[in-house]
Amino acid sequence: MPVTYAARHVLEDHISGFEATPNPHHLAILRAVSVFSVLAHQGHEADIDEALTTLEDVHVRVCGPGEWLVVSEIVAADTIARQLADLGANRASFVDQTDGRVVLQIHGPKVRAILGKCTALDLHADLFEIGQSTNCQICHVAANLARTGQDSFEIIVMRSFAGFLFDELREMGREFALTAGFA
């Protein structure tokens, strides 16, 4: 007997019944995002970095020396896989992390105060510039944090820790009336 599975987001149960009209401080869960992990082979770090910046409709998030996350809400995973394969197997390796990662966006005038409660990074606008990203601990969970706008950040976390991180961020944002919902 065939079984049909319904695709559900890992945070579906965390948000169900609690979605609200976004306040100035809002935590958005992205549903359909392609995420790839890319690792440059030794000696090819600079040219892979340059090649990744030429990809259209994707955001490149730095994870460490010669390691990036390639993220897109527009480009399908199979298209990104073809583009990354064109970089050459002798220059870089990549893995589709789309089903293994969750992408959250948080914004608001006091977003740095909210994130400051759960990460040790200095998020001052002069130090953590728009477009900058890094791997870090957020609420004791390994994540990638990127500044995407004046008062907005993107958090990429492994799927198995997404529920915990989501609940903790909601708690940290309570004093600022942080709302949450699917984007």
TrEMBL record:
Domain of life, per lineage: Bacteria
GCVT N-terminal domain residues: 54-179
Highest classification ranks of the organism: Bacteria, Pseudomonadati, Pseudomonadota, Alphaproteobacteria, Hyphomicrobiales
Matches recorded under InterPro entries: GCVT_N (IPR006222), TrmE/GcvT-like (IPR027266)
Pfam families documented for this protein: GCV_T (PF01571)
Protein name: GCVT N-terminal domain-containing protein
